[in-house]
Design goal:
- The protein is built from seven helices and seven strands.
- By secondary structure, it is α+β, with helices and mostly antiparallel strands.
- It has one domain: 3-Layer(aba) Sandwich (Protein Transport Mog1p, Chain A).
- The chain has a seven-stranded antiparallel sheet, with helices on both faces.
- A hairpin with a 2-residue loop joins β2 and β3.
């Protein structure tokens, strides 16, 4: 009986390989959409990456304190240009690796980031675990979400229209899908 049980356990260990934790680790750089991955939208400028506090402060100065407080690991910033209703527009994407889900959620809910004036993005097909849309800017839409260990921030500039919001949502859904795969 014991021998059969041991053989059964050995078979399970061999037949059901454990997932390699390292292979599942995603790099923020790999989550950034490439040129025309979102149809009609291309990267502008170099991707800006920070892998430590000093580099993060060089990118966003005083704002870096919030992310460092919650275990910042790495971030990638990328700007894009495309057209909305035939007019050239710019979009800014920031993806932060916060190390774990608790840190990502805590950054999302930090009062220095969360103004309370945002609208929760609650449609069935929203990005991330939680997402919100900030409509308080005069000319821009901002979308934020967190998923797994990532906090994501997207702003479409000078296009406060439904078409502009749809583009920002498309970017958010694309990054969310990349995180989930």
């Amino acid at each position: 009986m014991k021998k059969t049980l041991l053989l059964g356990l050995l078979f399970l260990l061999i037949a059901c390989p454990q997932k390699d934790e390292q292979s599942e680790l995603k790099d923020v750089v790999d989550l950034v959409p490439t040129d025309n991955e979102i149809s009609g939208w291309s990267r502008t400028g170099e991707m800006r990456v920070a892998e430590n506090g000093t580099q993060l402060y060089a990118l966003i100065d005083g704002e870096a304190d919030i992310y460092e407080q919650y275990g910042f690991v790495k971030c990638a910033f990328q700007d894009y240009q495309g057209e909305v209703s035939g007019v050239p527009r710019n979009l800014e994407l920031r993806i932060f690796d916060m190390g774990d889900t608790t840190n990502a959620k805590d950054v999302y809910h930090d009062s220095r980031i969360e103004s309370g004036a945002e609208t929760p993005w609650t449609e069935q097909s929203h990005a991330g675990v939680e997402a919100r849309i900030d409509e308080t800017f005069l000319f821009d839409y901002n979308i934020e979400f967190w998923e797994e260990r990532f906090y994501v921030w997207i702003t479409i500039h000078d296009e406060k229209t439904q078409a502009g919001l749809n583009v920002a949502k498309l970017f958010a859904l694309n990054v969310s899908a990349a995180i989930s795969e």
